[in-house]
Amino acid sequence: MKRISLLTVASGIIVLAACTAEKPVEKKSLLLQHEDEITELISQMTLEEKVNMLHGKNMFSSAGVERLGIADMQYADGPFGIREEMEPHSWNSLGLTTDSATFYPTGSALAATWSEDLAYRYGVGMAKEARLRGKDMILGPAINIQRLPTGGRTYEYLSEDPLLSAALSVKYTLGAQDNGAAVCLKHYALNNQEDARGSVNVKVSQRAMREIYLPPFEAAVKEGDAYGVMAAYNKVEGDWCSENDMLLNRILRDEWGFRGIVISDWGGVHSTVKALQNGLNVEMPGSRYFGQALLDSVKSGAVSDSIIDIRVREILRVRLTVKPVPEAEANQVMTSQPEQQQIAYDIAKRSIVLLKNENKLLPIQAEKVKSIAVIGDNAVRTQALGGVGAGVKALYEVTPLAGITKQFEGSGITIKWAQGYAEYSKRDRESRVSPYTNADPKLMDEAVSLAKESDLVIFVGGNNREVETEGRDRNAITLPMGQDELLKALSAVNPNIVTVIVSGAPVDLRVVQETSPAILMSWFNGSEGGTALADVLSGEISPSGKLPFTLPIRLEDSPAYSLNVYPQEMPQRQGDIFTNLVNRRNAAQLGGPDAEYAEDIFVGYRWFDTKEVPVLYPFGHGLSYSYFNYLNLEVDMDDDNLVAEVKLRNTGKYDGEEVVQLYVRRPDSKIERPLQELKGFQRIHLQAGETGSVKIQVPMKHLRHWDEAAWDWQLEPGTVEIIVGSSSKDGRIQMETEI
Ligand code: BGC
User: Fold this and answer.
1) 637 lies in which domain range?
2) What is the CA radius of gyration of the chain?
3) Which of 94, 147, 282, 442 could be a cystine partner for 263, CB 3.0 to 4.6 Å?
């Protein structure tokens, strides 16, 4: 190992010679433990029994073979809580009394913790509740890159950055699978928009795919040994993901060594022979292509027996590795349990991002503040359910108002609530009423009167789960229902406004920025979201979340909008693929738009930094009530790894946590690259006055780029600048070295 420190670098650059790319180490998948037993089982199965395993049995199960003691596979949405039990063939609730689950903070909230430990515990919590419900496979984590600020599922996904997304995906996977439930990584791949998700054809360079969009999947497969993958609805380079030879056979299975099962997204299959051959194991939820049609194809010779056996073997590997829960043991106790509620709380506490805190308005000072006006529909709105698709029938959810009220009980502070702006409801969404309306004058007047007579305003706004939804992108990032207008009116009568943004995706904060001395992002933050928010507001804990995506000034500044490649012109108006069969056929027959990923590798901060486009709040930003001084940086390097040791001191008055971020720049690179890229991070807890250090390990292979001509990863020699700091725009210590 070669050690360089900040001081050494000042006097000269250290050259580490001949550093070659690391050869991927094949870790043996746990799925490979039963191969002989599987051969024996397959030899006893009839063709009908085999084909019966390759498609949905019920809405959330696929068949085993009872005669041979092979249990059915039980699936559960995912990704942020175990979904309630549904009738076998519909989306109607079964009405059980034991299936209320813990609602975990959604994807972007988890990512805002920048904590691998918490991602692991998230997986543990999901698996424990899945097992109580008799489930074998969680339909999650959802790990597509947040390409568009408006993407309907941004709240489910983790981050705009592949390294952060990958690190958390690996840990979620390990946490779940170490506790008996398989994961199903979704949606593989490039499901980055919801509009036309069932017909869009993604056109993307191999480099952008490898460097930006695939790493979370690749890492969860190679390092997490993920047992399941869900093929996305869209096409990639002309082929549906559920029958995409490049994605399923060549990359996932051959290159990454995936040994598990690929299931379709619900209704996302479009062929029999091609889908089976190109890598799909299970058609969900029906049997249109992998039922009688598949049997007929085998009988006619269009599909060989051997490929059927391969697909069945892959399913059996998962089936024999994940132990089935006996039916009599499932659903016997309430799904949501205190240990899991604690996990949800621990994540929520570390996810809240303090964007700004002028005049130290936060934490709330009980000596100065005697009355608080809590204003906003989101203060009383629960977010576990809503919109299309996955949601959680939560056992309970502490709303912001409930959390705040409880926190300040007995403190002598009066707390009053006014709705302020109208709810954007399910009916509004279904009838396609725009959420971007004027303020409701009556609600606004009431709120202004309350603000006038209060010492402090806590405005709880943002989106809700009807605004951000699966199946549809937003067409703006404006705050819905006239919130900007309301904020202007509130600030005219009371300048002490703390704005709390409840959303899972970027919103336009220009008016918030003008009107609010303090701003918090508090996400769709799970069962304990309101408790965690109140802890931060009161100063019981210091905020420590960091943005997992950039907050642009204007939507038009973001890459795909700026290059005019999104939204695409639709060949014709299409309903969402998920909603009904007609839409599915339309998607297949009429075709969809092409999504040109013209920004290439310049996604998120890679775009803003490189093109010098100003942002409102940068990727990785998040303040604390405390202050962290970065004291020293030392770097050790060998052929395989670069290890940075960063020393810092909490110089403030509060105990707190900091997320140390490491970015790399390649100033003399011959290759087109982003200005900088995140290559490592580490969270550290420091008491007031305490000094500590973190070690951040950067595998050399993470410094490689994808070389299109060589069709492989390459490590370019040259200067490497290492910048360590508190956000992508707040580098504190910098040094350089050579590789
Ligand atoms: C979603 C998946 C989900 C499935 C089953 C689909 O519409 O895209 O994420 O797991 O439905 O609910």
Assistant:
1) 2-21+626-738
2) 26
3) 282
d(CA 62, CA 42): 17
Question: Could you tell me if 284 and 228 are in contact, meaning their C-beta atoms sit under 8 angstroms apart?
Answer: no
Beta carbons of 169 and 120 less than 8 angstroms apart? no
Mutate to test the pocket of ligand 1, among 470, 473, 580 (most ligand atoms within 8 A of CB): 470
Q: Which of 253, 242, 221, 331 is closest to 54 using CA atoms?
A: 242
The pLDDT > 70 percentage for the chain reads: 95
449 and 528 belong to one structural domain: yes
User: Based on the structure, what is the number of domains in the chain?
Assistant: 3
Instruction: Give domain status of residue 205, yes or no.
Output: no
Q: What is the CATH number of the domain that holds 519?
A: 3.40.50.1700
Among 229-233, 386-390, 398-402, name the one with the lowest average pLDDT: 386-390
C-alpha 380: how far from chain center: 25
Residue 169 has pLDDT above 70, yes or no: yes
CA dist., res. 295 & res. 536, Å (int): 59
- Pairing relation of β-strands 641-650 and 628-637? antiparallel
Q: Which residues contact 357 (CB under 8 A, 6 or more apart)?
A: 517, 518, 623, 625
Distance CA(60)–CA(390), nearest Å, equals 13
Cα distance between residue 138 and residue 346, in whole Å: 21
686 has which bridge partners?
Answer: 656
User: Which residue, judged by its Cα, is nearest atom 11 of ligand 1?
Assistant: 266
Residue 266 Cβ < 6 Å to ligand 1: yes
Which atom of ligand 1 approaches the CA of 390 most closely? Answer: 12
Say yes or no: CB of residue 265 within 6 Å of ligand 1: yes
Nearest to 698 by CA among 646, 650, 630: 646
Residue 395 to residue 377: CA distance in whole angstroms: 21
Three-state secondary structure call for residue 172: helix
For ligand 1, say whether the CB of 390 is within 6 Å of any of its atoms.
yes
324-371 per-position pLDDT tens digit? 999 999 999 999 999 999 999 999 999 999 999 999 999 999 889 999
Q: Check residue 370 and give its pLDDT.
A: 96
Give the model's pLDDT for residue 17.
30
d(CA 550, CA 533): 22
**Which pLDDT belongs to residue 19?**
33
Residue 510, classified by CB atoms within 10 Å of its CB into exposed (0-12), middle (13-18) or buried (19+), is: middle
Q: Is 317 found in the same domain as 342?
A: no
| pLDDT attached to residue 578 | 72
Residue 505 CB: number of other CB atoms within 10 A? 27
Is residue 171 situated within a structural domain?
no
Which sequence positions are flagged as catalytic?
265
User: Which residue has the least CA distance to atom 5 on ligand 1?
Assistant: 266
**Residue 388 DSSP one-character state:** B
For residue 157 and ligand 1, the question of a CB distance below 6 A is answered with: no
Give the position, in ligand 1's atom list, of the atom nearest the Cα of 156.
Answer: 9
Arithmetic mean of pLDDT over the chain:
94
Q: pLDDT tens digits for 267-284? A: 999 999 999 999 999 999
The answer to whether residues 501 and 423 belong to one domain is yes
**629 pLDDT exceeds 90?**
yes
**Is 27 a member of any domain?**
no
**Distance from residue 150's CA to the centre of ligand 1 (Å):** 19
Q: Is the CB of 283 under 6 A from ligand 1?
A: no
Are 399 and 480 in the same domain?
yes
In a domain, 731, yes or no: yes
Tell how far the Cα of 264 is from the centroid of ligand 1, in angstroms.
Answer: 9
